[in-house]
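so ive been stuck on this for like two days lol. basically i have the seq below and the ligand is zinc ion, smiles is in there too. i just want the complex predicted, nothing fancy, no docking runs or whatever. if the output looks off dont worry ill sanity check it later, just need somthing to start from for the group meeting slides
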Amino acid sequence: MGDFMDIKDMPKIVLHLHLDGSIDILDARKWSREDGFEFTKKELLNELQVSDDCHSLNDYLEKFTLPCKLLQTCERLEICSYHLFMRLARMNVLYAEVRFAPMKHLEKNLNLDDVVISVVNGMNKASVDAGIMGGIILSMMRGDAKEDNLNVINIAKKYLGRGVVAVDLAGAESVYPTRDYIDLFRYANSLGIPYTIHAGEAAGVDSINAAMDAKTKRIGHGIRCIDDKRVEKEIIDNEILLEVCVTSNYQTEAIKGSHPIEKLYRDGVKINISTDNDTVSNIDINKEYERILNETNLTINDLWKCNRNSIDYIFANQEIKDKLKKEFEN
Ligand SMILES: [Zn+2]
């Protein structure tokens, strides 16, 4: 296993990454012009990336406005997905799960089938061109009508096993408590759809407890379990995977002081390291790994173990898991 000289050479598994928040900046520039927005380069970056004036998840979420406005055609959705998976492949990501909220892409004349098929097509093309494997997670949104979120679950069921692998819940956690959405996950569960839930990012352990009550096996962020020993222990005992995004957590101020990733890891929490949003956070997975190596005592071998552990939690069939395990042993 991993005696890697360089983080770039290490095989990686990325499980928490938003499509719209990782839009290619050159694509965004091209599409903005086509749509008649007159941004200078600096203005465009300001629309797409957080700066020092980001102090909360709600500030952070503002950066999704422009990408959603631009991603309203099949062609753009497919290109956005393709470019993201190709970029991940170049960073030696072997498997990635990319998520997005399909209801946000119905402003012009697309329907849910168009939207989902386009994003899956982009992934599949990258898979052919670069060998990267992956799946698409469909995010329900906090604050959306129940009807809309049910539509997301139903379209996930339709494309499950055909590119779509799971559902998720995203959005303003401090405003819309996770507990209000447990029924939706029970419904997803009854249809055999796997899921992950954003929790313990902008809200505390109540939110994590609600996610655990919904019987989730993965939690997006979940880092606020550090505030409560009992909750952290429950995560460890139930072997729940936390999808940890360090840079994003600093930007949304999900944590005060230094990030708990090392403590969580040493306590035995299963961790996948991801970036949340490459464009909004102005980061990529290799830079994120370097940051963790620089700011903690975690070693490259620890990061390798996080990746190896992540394989058991991916929303894919056993064949893909075995294939990935084999590649990690080489
Ligand atoms: Zn997220």
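The mean pLDDT is 96. The chain has one domain: 7-329.
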